[in-house]
Amino acid sequence: MQQQMFSAMRQSIIDGLPATATSLAQQALSLGIAPLDAINHGFVPGMEAVGEQFAKAQMFLPDMMASAEAMRAAMVVLEVELQNQGAERPMAGVVVLGTTKGDIHEIGKQLVGTLLSANGFRVYDLGADVPGEKFAAKAFELSADIVGVSALLTTTMRNQKTVIEALEKASLRSQVKVMVGGAPVTRRWAEEIGADGYAKDAMRAVVLARRLMEGKAQSASAAVLL
Length: 226
Ligand code: B1M
What we know:
It contains nine helices and five strands.
């Protein structure tokens, strides 16, 4: 039964059917399927299939846009449930999140934001196509602990570095941890550009954010001891 649901979810994304995706997300919740399972085993595999078909020119931009709409429709339903699950948690840290300049991919970044919120982080999502200076200005305004930068294109992942440079220019780099992610991003790339951490997916982003907060607390107490 669960497998059939996952398979129908995957297909609703491939076919780009928002109403079907919404209905399947609602059904999944009423059947007691965990929202993250629906996302990771149902809807995300649909997006992966879309990406593969697009790369082989078996699918075109309008189809990919319809698939993205279907994914968003499912996420609207599932994100509410994810938020509810994390409602009562203590504040874990302040995160400024966004997708790099030149890049309009938002779905994965939004999932990262939702899971961070559900796990007690206060998340300010700047959206997509965000220049480095805007990350730095918001990080300053909110005294952010972490800046999270997503990139889905091999061309725009370079702009993750410009966010770090903007934080340096604003003299904020020592106070703010930077985490990066997105499909083309690797641990090696994160190291190369001087980010503090890389997460492959949204769950790992939560684990990483917690680790970065521990690191911040340790360096703060070290500073006090000195
Ligand atoms: Co585009 N696109 N797209 N696209 N798109 C990709 C990324 C692509 C791989 C497809 C392909 O060719 N196979 C390809 C990039 C190739 C490359 O650079 N090597 C591509 C291309 C080429 C393009 C255009 C250039 C197409 C064109 O115009 N000819 C164009 C670019 C526009 C631009 O940004 N300037 C374009 C446009 C679009 C749409 C607008 C149609 C739509 C985006 C809609 C939206 O987001 N509002 C779209 C989509 C949907 C995709 C695919 C199919 C799916 C992306 C997605 O949402 N995945 C994608 C193929 C693919 O990735 N398989 C593709 C689901 C999501 C849950 O996963 O985003 O990977 P993901 O996020 C994950 C992790 O990466 C990680 O956690 C998330 C959840 O687990 N993660 C982080 C993400 N951010 C993180 C941040 C963190 C930590 C973890 O810390 C801060």
